[in-house]
Specification:
- With 90 residues, the chain is an all-alpha fold.
- 68% of the residues lie in helices and 0% in strands.
- The N and C termini lie far apart (85 Å).
């Protein structure tokens, strides 16, 4: 009969460290889809080693940079559209 485990000793499910093309794809995903980057950062934040924490920080930074780039681009595009409307005579 297997020994009974107390709730505090239940093993956590560990995520494998992303390597190769998956890591590069995760970085691109974090930049272009900031919500996915935030999700990846939160999943890997409590990793078993320093590599997972470093990956998590990169995903978080790229996610923030992607969000700022999207907001800036949206504001600039809106400004360009409004200035074009002010120039036209009709």
């Amino acid at each position: 009969m297997p020994p009974k485990r107390s709730p505090s000793t239940v093993p956590s499910v560990g995520l494998p460290y992303p390597q190769g093309w998956w890591r590069v794809a995760a970085y691109f995903l974090a930049f272009f889809v900031p919500g996915a980057g935030l999700t990846l950062a939160l999943l890997y934040w409590r990793g078993p080693d320093g590599r997972s924490l470093r990956f998590s920080r990169w995903c978080l930074a790229l996610s923030a940079a992607g969000a700022v780039a999207a907001w800036t681009g949206s504001a600039m595009w809106s400004d360009i559209q409004n200035s074009q409307a002010g120039i036209q005579p009709w």
